[in-house]
Structures are given as C-alpha cells and as structure tokens.
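Troubleshooting: if your tokenizer reports a length mismatch, compare your output against this known-good record of 240 residues.
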Amino acid sequence: MKVFLIGMLLLCCSVQSQQSVHFNSSDGLEISSDYYAKQGTSTFILLFHQAGWSRGEYREIAPKLNAMGYACLAVDLRSGGAVNGVVNETNRKAKAKGMATTYKEAFKDIEAAVNFVKTTYKPEKLILWGSSYSSALVLKYAGDHPTAVQAIVSFAPGEYFGSKTYIADSAKHIEVPTFITSAKNEYKNWKAIHAAIPGTQKKSYLPDTSGNHGSRALWEKFNDHKGYWEAVSEFLNTVP
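Known-good structure output:
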C-alpha cells in the first residue's frame, strides 16, 4: 500500500509526455510505439496491448509507472485496432502491405521490441508487460528466452492460439519473477499456465470484485483499480 500511495503522489508532480518511436520487426514491418522517458532509472518496462487495441491502452498507466521510477515503451503490435482515440499504426501498416496480423504473428514484434530496447536504451533491468493475448505472448517469450528479461507482468493470459498448451509448454521454462492477474472469472484461463511455471518466484492476484480484463483493470474509471495497482506495485518492488 505504501509504495502504491507514494507512486500516485509522485505522479502529481512528475508526469512525462510520450515520444513517438519507430523500429522494424524481423520481417521489415515498421513498428510504432510511445516512449515514456524517465531520467535516472535503470529499469525499463515494455508494454503490450490487448486484442483489437493499440498502445493507447497505456496512456493513463504509463505515466503512473513513470512516477514509480520506470521508463516505459508502449508498443503497437500488428494484431490490434484502436483504443482511447489512438489508432494502432503497426496494424494499419501491416494491412496496407497485405501482411498477416494474427496473434501468433505479433510474437515477432515482441521479440523485435526487446531487441530494440536492449540495443537503444541499454537498461539494467527489462520487464515485459502484456494484456490479454499479448500477456500470454510475454509468458511465451520468457519461456523461450529464459535469460533475456528480468520479470514478467501478465494481465489476463490464456491459451488463445489454437493449442491447449501453446503457452504452458513455454511457461515450463520461465526462470524470472512472474506476476499474473485477471478478472475473477478468468482464473480458469490461466490456472494451468501458472501451475506450469516452476519455482517460487511467481505471484498472482484476483480481486474480491468481478474485476476487468487486461491492463485496463488499472484504469481509474473502474472502482476496483486500486487493488490491482497495489498488487502489481508490490510485485514490481520485489523484482531483484
């Protein structure tokens, strides 16, 4: 609770405006993103949106993470649309080129984003944060690349990719601290994934209320957003 309240207090006097940043995926598609700079930090959070949406999912969230001491990059994956008046530019460019925009195709954009941040900003710690389908893909990334990042935050993951174990098969190899949360009735979607993650560094949170799907659970418009913020803040504070 203390960390959460301090972070929200700092937000009042330390909001950073975002900057547009572009880089290429492995197949040449230009990826659009918003960079929320934070001077003097060595920890970076990569933010990925849910299905049908865009980097706009984090317009309210990223400045609060800034206030808590994290630099952030909110990325438009090729599978998406628009939210909060922000159009997914990566999705628009992919469609214009006739490129596939499935959930699985977006995985290469996550890989490219990690490579870009490591090369460009050189953070000491890198945390991947996903929402809905992308929250499952960041778990897959952590399992497929066990030493590449330092932690995972996953809002409402599930086996959204055809196979019943597509994500769980990768999750078995995760070695970093992992946080999973969702709406209360979505627990069944990620129970097996959470169970597959080895070790004792995994944390989870379910609200007493019905909650909300994806990272939007943190939006102030929802009465139960503080519980999510307290849980994720407590987790982030324990990442070594």
